[in-house]
Amino acid sequence: MKSKLTKVSLAAAIAAASFGMTQAQAADYTFSFAHVLIEGYPNGQAALRFKEEVEEKSDGRIQIDVPPAAQVGGDVEIIEQIQMGLVDIGIPPTATLGNFEPRMQILDLPFLIADYDTMVKVLDGDVGREILDTLNDDNMYGVNFWGAGFRHMTNNVRPIHGPEDLGSDPHVRTMQAPIIISTYENLDANATAMAFTEVYNGLQQGVVEGQENPLANIYTMRFHEVQDYLSLTNHAYHAYAAVINQDSRESPPEDLQQIMLGSLRQWSRYISSADPR
After folding, report:
1. For the chain, what is the domain count?
2. Helix, strand counts (H, E) of the chain
3. CATH number of the structural domain spanning residue 99
4. Are 197 and 41 a contacting pair, CB within 8 Å?
5. Would you call 232 helix, strand, or coil by DSSP?
6. Cis status of the peptide bond prior to 102, with omega within 30 of 0
7. How confident is the model over 108-146, as pLDDT tens digits?
8. What's the alpha-carbon Rg for the chain, to the nearest Å?
9. Whole-angstrom distance, CA of residue 247 vs CA of residue 19
10. What is the DSSP letter of 152?
């Protein structure tokens, strides 16, 4: 009897394992969605909601893997991997994309977008579509913009009321974006390009004394722990662009393509609703 039960249990275990393997292999298409943000950040949460929605609406035909927090590299590395097809989807800042497609740099001009309503009209309208289409030459398809809010400044030297409060210090960390760096240089300020994932340590160790980011980034990355002053400068809108490798976008049939594109557009609206403005 014992031997028979053992055989039955073994058969059940094999059947269960086989069923699990079948379930794991059920997806016809697997895509990676990489970003540098922590999962608690609104964009990080939206990426996970996107994964859930696409997998549900596709009836499991699509699987989305979401490595967060720069697990596969910083924004520059993620963009390079999207171009090569090593990563399928990303949400890099438009400022970083400007290093690959110079026409994206127009969004880095200071005070270009005055307020939230103007941002919606520009980025969700014909102008935004024209800007995203410039990425076609770089083997990427720009789906839409994912917002993050207007950038503000923090530092350990003084409150920033105007350009005269910058000067030779504080040394301000910026993204690796020519227009942003040039803006600070034209204000006779010191700007240091630094990867987003290195900013906290850079501030803590005094490599830089200030930085610029939306409030959501400042809070979730806990920059307030190593900064004394927050100045609500509202000087530029911090946009991300949802981009897909061209071959990855075209690989599934039309119905699955529309599920993916529709979900990316849907969850950008989630970001907008979380925007603290």
Report:
1. 1
2. 11, 8
3. 3.40.190.170
4. no
5. strand
6. no
7. 999 999 999 999 999 999 999 999 999 999 999 999 999
8. 22
9. 31
10. E
